[in-house]
Specification:
Helix content is about 35%, strand content about 15%. It is an alpha+beta fold and about 475 residues long. It has a single domain, classed as Cytochrome-c3 Hydrogenase, chain B, CATH 1.10.645.10. The chain has a four-stranded antiparallel beta sheet. Strands 12-13-14 form a three-stranded antiparallel beta sheet. It has a two-stranded antiparallel sheet with strand order 4-5. A hairpin with a 2-residue loop joins strand 2 (about 20-25) and strand 3. The longest helix is centred in the middle third of the chain and has 32 residues, at about 190-220. It starts with a strand and ends in a 29-residue tail after the last helix. Bound molecules: NI-FE active center and magnesium ion.
Length: about 475
């Protein structure tokens, strides 16, 4: 069977740097992807930067991992630090954290559909960012294309409004300074509550009357994509948006399923390890739990092809993200595919926006927003949450009031991971393998599968790999530390 190897490098319209190498085989006139390798082409060094610093720097520093999902890193960090200090932030803080994170979900999901994904399906006007583009398999008629192009522009406004809405409480977006261990550094002012409600008054109708119908319209042109890009069939969520102080009740609960089943299983963070057989990290760090994980780059390394580690749950790959969350929560079960990811993401946007409406009304201007926090001398804890792109965890160990170890496992690490110790491909790789390609010179089908996961490799930047080898940016001592 003749095969060709095609590399898309970089894959554009995602955050950060991803390369995908696919082997396409021709068999009796049709062409199919028979192998795939996803490569994160930049090293993430943030975890090492944190070591030796005061723990309460973590929410601010980890938010710089990414400009698209910073709020979730702030959330994961303060969740871990609250736990390490044995305190529970007041209700107002819990609610404001949810409001800012929810605003970021709305911004990020709208960004994904209109500004990163729809271009794989429609042939837009003869101007950037629409052209140049591949013309293979563009099926949407001119009238619908014009509508979607118009909504591309409207969506820019919607994203601005979602950012402004989050900044009302977060202080600023995209990197809100208000996330601190112990609570939140903003007051509950009635005028902010009513401004927040006004923004929702625009965003909710946009999601209901524009975003969701647009995804459904696109699906009607490409119904075969309900059967493309299935991936592992394993879905997992850590859960997010605490509804009360108990931590047990969430808008989107934690759990997992295997093989596209609806039979729920529990999610035990202790079953997670990160495998590095095919990653540019030292083999001495292979298969560690994040609580004792290490970030020790090794480049070059035989067989390795990615800067992403391969997180696994009981040694199995899991897809994370809006579809996983909605599925685990019982809100979506149509199937696992390219279109199901888009539809679940759009429906989740509405679910979160409606919840924000309820929560903002629960703020109490007369109640506290902060509980006195002091850094414990020793301790370890983890903070699990959900970034827009899926399950996110921060694991911290504190020694002598300083960070002794910090490990971050991001959603894209789960989805776009390379092969694991057993040689099993990551979810995105599995989803690409088996995809039929019309034109091997323009494998747009592969892009559609990749983009459905909304990958973010930006969470992998900080020490670059220029041609001459690994370059290390050494940071000096922290003043006063
Ligand atoms: Ni950089 Fe992110 C989200 C996180 S994906 S966008 O959502 O964490 O790795
Ligand atoms: Mg990590």
């Amino acid at each position: 069977m003749p095969t060709t190897v095609t590399s898309i490098d970089p894959v554009t319209r995602l955050e950060g740097h991803l390369k995908i190498e696919v082997t396409i085989a021709s068999d009796s006139g049709s062409q199919k992807v028979v192998d795939a390798k996803a490569t994160g082409t930049m090293f993430r060094g943030l975890e090492n930067i944190l070591v030796g610093r005061p723990p309460d720097d973590a929410p601010d520093i980890t938010q710089r991992i990414c400009g698209v999902c910073p709020v979730s890193h702030g959330m994961a960090a303060v969740t871990a630090l609250d736990k390490a200090a044995g305190l529970q932030a007041p209700d107002n803080a819990r609610i404001m954290r949810n409001l800012v994170l929810g605003a970021n979900y709305i911004q990020s999901h709208i960004l994904h559909f209109y500004h990163l994904a729809v271009q794989d399906f429609i042939d837009g006007p003869n101007m950037p960012p629409w052209q140049p583009s591949w013309s293979t398999d563009k099926r949407v008629d001119k009238a619908t294309t014009d509508v979607l192009v118009g909504h591309y522009v409207t969506a820019l406004d919607m994203r601005r409004m979602a950012h402004e809405m989050g900044a009302l409480f977060g202080g600023r977006l995209p990197h809100p300074p208000a996330f601190v261990p112990g609570g939140f550094t903003n007051s509950v002012r009635p005028d902010r509550i009513s401004s927040f409600q006004s923004y929702l008054g625009v965003l909710i109708p946009f999601i209901q009357n524009t975003y969701i119908p647009d995804v459904e319209a696109l699906a009607s042109y490409y119904p075969d994509y309900y059967n493309v890009g299935g991936g592992t069939g394993n879905l997992m969520a850590f859960g997010v948006f605490d509804l009360d102080a108990s931590g047990a009740n969430k808008l989107l609960r934690s759990g997992r399923v295997q093989n596209a089943s609806t039979a729920q299983q529990t999610m035990d963070p202790n079953q997670i390890t990160e495998q590095v057989a095919y990653s540019w990290y030292a083999n001495s760090t292979n298969n560690l739990k994040p609580s004792s994980g290490q970030t020790t780059p090794q480049f070059p390394k035989t067989n390795a092809y990615s800067w992403l580690k391969a997180p696994r749950y009981q040694n199995a790959p899991y897809e994370v993200g809006p579809l996983a969350r909605m599925w685990v929560n019982g809100d979506y079960s149509r199937g696992i595919s390219v279109l199901d990811r888009h539809l679940a993401r759009a429906q989740e946007t509405l679910k979160v926006a409606l919840a924000l409406q309820t929560w903002v009304a629960q703020l109490d201007p007369s109640a506290p927003v902060y509980k006195q926090y002091s850094t414990p001398e020793e301790g370890s804890a983890f903070g699990l949450t959900e970034a827009p792109r899926g399950a996110l965890g921060h694991w911290v160990r504190i020694n002598n009031h300083k960070i002794a170890n910090y490990q971050v496992v991001t959603p894209t690490c789960w989805n776009a991971s390379p092969m694991d110790n057993a040689g099993v491909h990551g979810p995105l790789e599995q989803a690409v393998i088996g995809t039929t390609v019309l034109n091997a010179a323009e494998p747009v089908e592969v892009l559609r599968v990749i983009h459905s996961y909304d990958p973010c490799l930006a969470c992998a930047v900080h020490v670059m790999r220029p041609k001459e080898g690994v370059r290390v940016f050494a940071l000096g001592a922290v003043p006063g530390a």
